[in-house]
Amino acid sequence: MDMQTKTQQRLNALLQWFYARRCLASPTAPKDRRALQRRVRSGSVVMPYKGHYIGAEEWNKLSYAERIIWSLRSVCRRYQGIVLCGPSAAAVHGFTTSLKTQRYVHIAVSKRSQAGRHGFIFAHYYKDPPPTCEIDGMLVTDAMQTMMDCGRTLDFVNAFEICSMGLRKCGFANKALQGFVGRKRRLWGIIRARFVAECADPLCENGGEAVAVAAIIELGYKQPQTQVTFTSPLDGREIRGDFCWERDDGSLVVGELDGRRKYTDPAMTDGAEISEVIMREKDRESELNMLQIPVVRFQMEHVRKREPLRQRLEASRIPHDSNVWRSPFAGFRCVAY
């Protein structure tokens, strides 16, 4: 057996040992790190964080949520006793699956001298130890603390998504978050956290809907009501719209967010075929039109680019928010990712 084959077998055994523990490999032997670095350059191994490795094939099999959790678990395993906070804690709680916010691993520290960026570690100083809980072997700030910290440190869209999904997952109304944040004083970014707590909507069914609502608010339009129910004029059953606005003249407009998950995710389709889901959508839209309620449809691509979304909202005569100037996020630059 040649040296190259022996090295590959050793690396395979190393990777498999870590895979069994659902985390990335963090070898201590210099020869293993060098061998894995060569494979990173060739593309057969991925390095999400410096010194943490996983085979490219295995990485591609993982969902976004699993990629984040495996990465964070490996860091917690390597640095015993750390407390995850901010967007890292939000991912462990299941409030977000956005890879964009996971560029750094955010941890809580009790000494001001330890705060700051240290490679891929972003340490945040807490004068008083934050409330924590253990999830899947990882120590994280508790749900309310995590949502407040994300509201203080992230941009509005990501903070709104995390807080909306956090409230939904925990079964809280946004008044609970408002009360928690309202009791905090003299914290950097607390005004932004209060604004997010005021806007957060636990009725958003998924992160995509939350991101869309946040984009609508940032564009200066009134925040829509979510998951509003209507009575079908055909058979009296309940039908729902993703978003709903009341125009200045009292008429209603329903907004529908179209995305692939809506038609392919079994959790959202009840196991139906794509064609059946599309037909149900068309029937529901027809019933809303029978109620004299127009429907404006948009996609996540429109939400991300903003201008196509703005054009659709403007053409549908969606009312503007006269209090848009109140947002404390104007001019804010997020450095958390």
UniProtKB/TrEMBL annotation:
Organism: Bifidobacterium angulatum DSM 20098 = JCM 7096
Protein name: Uncharacterized protein
